[in-house]
Amino acid sequence: MKTTPVTPADLASSVLAVPPLARNADLSLNKEANRALIRHLQDGGVSTLMYGGNANFYNIGSGEYPAICDMLQELAAANTWVIPSVGPDFGKALDQIAVLKQRSFPTAMVLPQTFPSTPAGAEAGLKRIADAYGRQIIVYIKAEGYLNPQNVANLVQAGIVCGIKYAIVRKDPKEDAFLSELVQKVDRKCIISGIGERPAIVHLRDFGLSAFTSGSVCVGPRGSMALLAALKRKDYATAEKIRAAYIPLEDCRDGLSPIRVLHEAVTLSGIGNMGPMLPLLSNLEAEHHARVGQAARELLAHDKALATKAA
After folding, report:
1. What are phi and psi of 20, to 5 degrees?
2. How far apart, in whole angstroms, are the C-alpha atoms of residue 24 and residue 131?
3. What is the CATH number of the domain that holds 272?
4. Three-state SS at 58
5. pLDDT score of 171
6. Inside any domain, residue 2
7. Domain that holds residue 174
8. H/E element holding 131?
9. DSSP state letter for 193
10. What's the rounded Cα separation, in Å, for the pair 190 and 279?
11. Cα(254)–Cα(169) distance, rounded to whole angstroms?
12. For the chain, how far is it from start to end, CA to CA, in angstroms?
């Protein structure tokens, strides 16, 4: 597992996969299913794994946290970078940071808490979390009102931030006053597009962001990595063609539930049985399985075809 300090080159080196976390029927960790998913991602060229919302880290207790971190550290390959999340509340974040300080993860992402919080309070809290950690953190912006661009700039200037995951959903990603201001105040190399393949082209082409996170990469890692490569060489026509394979599954996620659909998609595709979702989330209703399963299997078949073509 990567343990060296995070650089902008690290952020841009891979799609940042945001996987689900597999559990057994009794909600204990399913190590083998998690291993299968991680291997699938690594075999597809992905070298960065970010465990956050899709892994339901919002609902993970501090008591289980050490076992999860140890499992992920064990399962990751030597060149794979694992980013665990902490929080979202301040108290749990500090408890979890104490666990991470005893381990070699080079950074952690702080989950955003939009209530009860204020931008000034969130900025102060993130500073305290980073100070307690003694390492740089990744800031996650998911909604207006959590932090404003100047708060983020203050954190970057304080030297405690190695990356920013930007994930405010817009009807038209080209029209984004927040992101427009943020890229004027913060080095674009530190900002990651955090909403998957759909806005990735606009975010990297028009706003100059460094990379993107993805959930659907868990099903189709090779295509997602090919999309990132096309964007890096500014081949936007090819990027559009590659992204088209991801839209059916992304439509399911956006229309039903991004987290719950991805969890089920990995299972229904046959990559690994993700099992039950940790409360307070619940598994996707069976009536949606046919549509999600078809989209997931088609994306996986597309990805396997890319592997065959490359060979």
Report:
1. -75, 170
2. 36
3. 3.20.20.70
4. helix
5. 96
6. no
7. 8-310
8. helix 119-133
9. E
10. 33
11. 10
12. 27
Exposed (0-12), middle (13-18) or buried (19+): which is 192, by Cβ within 10 Å?
buried
CA neighbor of 42 nearest in space, from 19, 9, 66: 19
Beta bridge partners of 165: 140, 192
Q: Global pTM?
A: 0.97
Show the tokens assigned to 268.
């229904």
302's tokens:
């597309």
**For residue 57, which amino acid is it?**
F
- 107 contacts 83 by C-beta, under 8 angstroms: yes
Asked, for residue 228, whether it belongs to a domain, the answer is yes
Name the one residue in this structure whose structure tokens are 């399963």.
293
Query: What total number of domains does the chain contain?
Result: 1
CA–CA separation, 106 and 109 (whole Å): 11
pLDDT in tens, 182-221: 999 999 999 999 999 999 999 999 999 999 999 999 999 9
For 94-190, list the strands marked E by DSSP: 108-110, 137-141, 161-166
Residue 3 lies in a domain: no
